[in-house]
Design a protein that fits this description.
The protein has helices at residues 64-76, 82-98, 103-107, 109-121, 126-143, 148-164, 168-185, 189-203, 214-228, 233-251, 257-276, 287-304, 307-347, 355-374, 394-407, 411-417, 419-425, 445-470; strands spanning 380-384, 387-391. By secondary structure, it is mainly alpha-helical. Residues 59-273, 310-372 form the Interferon-related developmental regulator N-terminal domain.
Length: 477
């Protein structure tokens, strides 16, 4: 498979969710609502604010009480009483999310990792196991990349929970934690390939163990999309497209909206790679790869020497070329079906869906259709404490959503203190974007003009789409 190469996945040039009903609305002005309803976490497990370190000067340091509370929380994770373990989970998650100094976490990472795995695998409640898995994801973000040993410690128990846990919430959490742990902690291509294959088995519903529910399927689709951003664009546009396009197309018709959205985002990720490589419009994306395979057979025939062997190899090559043409036609038909399906979601007026659900579906699939049907990039704006960040490709959006939904209320603190997050999203230390692109405060005149211009452009495009899809009777958005 395509190589990751020096953690290139986390650079601005390369390119979950743990759903949360307390995500700060000021955090994002995105037009795509991708936060999962598959598993919501109560506010008590999100820290609820800065906590003990606020009185010690905020970001300038963490006072001893906060550190002591964290250490006590780690010890409580191994207690037999369920309420004590829950208190420990709250303390550990709160510290990791909101502390500007993660040295205490790094110093105890092996102890914390072992204790959290024990809680996740224990016989406690579904909520307790799910929160332990969420804490493991946050821990991975805190300890950072090149932690192969940590990933190896997580891999086996997480795979077991995915296929064998009797709690749906635990299985969902295990899927998301495995994907994020591989994304953050491992740079081994074999680990990525194995995890992608496992997630594909889950969302294809061919994995071992218990029946895959819609929530587990949606989580597997989300995790697969996250890890696909670490693979080379050429591999995504050719091999992965040929391998997974059909199943994504089928899942796009799922009765579950979370599954539809996650499948749609993965389709947008595949198509985006085809656009970037210039494969759209000149035959299907895998054409270069198919002709390369035929060329290999011709070269071997030339080395064989005999005229009879050459004739046989030419016949085999003709058969391969014919199969490739048929496959290209099949892929073209599938992409056309995807476009038509998304048009249907945009105009869906079914009374079976609530008004809010229809609104979310239309908003989401308008942006997905813009990429797949019109070859236009997405746009997501994230508010930071010192400005904002605009994300304009699906690969970065998948990464952003995975990190933001994992960290939830701690996202802003981590963006200020965690260098890894800034590197992944291409944000400078003080909140601006890296590189040559200028950064403006969201209240500046330049930013206001940019926002007005984008809004007018978006409205014009939407009016044109509404006229096409709905005619003169288009209902008001």
């Amino acid at each position: 498979m395509g190589k990751k190469g020096n953690k290139g996945r986390k650079s601005p040039s390369s390119r979950e969710e743990f759903g949360d009903d307390v995500i700060d609305d000021a955090m994002s002005t995105t037009s795509v609502d991708t936060y999962g309803s598959a598993l919501d976490y109560p506010e008590t497990y999100n820290g609820g604010g800065g906590g003990a370190w606020d009185a010690a000067g905020g970001e300038e340091g963490v006072n001893s009480k906060a550190v002591d509370d964290f250490k006590d929380g780690v010890e409580q994770l191994t207690e037999k009483r369920a309420s004590t373990r829950e208190a420990g989970l709250r303390a550990v998650i709160k510290f990791m999310l909101h502390s500007p100094d993660l040295e205490p976490v790094l110093a105890m990472r092996e102890t914390v990792l072992s204790a959290l795995i024990g809680v996740a695998r224990g016989k406690g409640t579904e909520s307790q196991g799910a929160h332990a898995l969420r804490a493991l994801s946050v821990l991975c973000v805190c300890i950072g990349p090149e932690e192969e040993e940590a990933f190896r410690s997580l891999r086996r128990p997480l795979r077991s929970l995915i296929t064998r846990s009797r709690h749906e919430g635990v299985r969902v959490g295990a899927v998301r934690t495995l994907a994020l742990a591989c994304f953050i902690c491992s740079s081994d291509d074999d680990n990525t390939s194995e995890t992608l294959d496992l997630l594909a088995d889950v969302f294809s519903r061919t994995s071992d163990g218990l029946e895959v529910t819609d929530k587990v399927c949606a989580a597997a689709l989300s995790g697969w999309g996250l890890l696909a951003t670490t693979v080379s664009r050429s591999w995504v546009a050719t091999r992965m497209t040929k391998q997974h396009l059909r199943v994504f197309r089928e899942l796009l018709s799922s009765p579950d909206m979370d599954v539809r959205i996650e499948a749609g985002e993965n389709l947008a990720l595949l198509h985006e790679s085809r656009i970037i490589l210039g494969l759209v419009g000149g035959g299907e994306g895998g054409s270069a790869d198919w002709s390369g395979g035929g060329g290999g057979g011709a070269a071997e025939a030339a080395q064989g020497g005999g005229e009879e062997e050459e004739e046989e190899d030419e016949e085999d090559q003709d058969d391969d070329d014919g199969a490739a043409e048929m496959e290209a036609m099949d892929l073209t038909v599938l992409w056309e079906e995807v476009v038509e399906e998304m048009k249907g979601f945009i105009t869906d007026s079914s009374k079976k869906l609530s008004r809010e659900t229809k609104k979310q579906q239309r908003r989401t699939f308008r942006q997905l259709f813009a990429t797949i049907g019109e070859n236009e990039p997405p746009e997501e704006v994230v508010s930071l404490q010192n400005g904002s960040l605009t994300v304009a490709d699906w690969a970065h959006i998948k990464q952003l959503n995975a990190l933001r939904s994992c960290l939830q209320s701690g996202f802003q603190t981590q963006m200020q203190s965690n260098e890894l997050l800034r590197e992944i999203l291409g944000v400078s230390k003080w909140g601006g974007t890296g590189g040559e692109k200028p950064f403006y405060s969201k209240n500046s005149e330049v930013r206001k003009q940019q926002t007005t211009s984008r809004t007018r452009s978006r409205h014009s495009k939407q009016e044109a789409q509404d006229h096409i899809f709905l005619g003169e009777g288009a209902e008001e958005r």
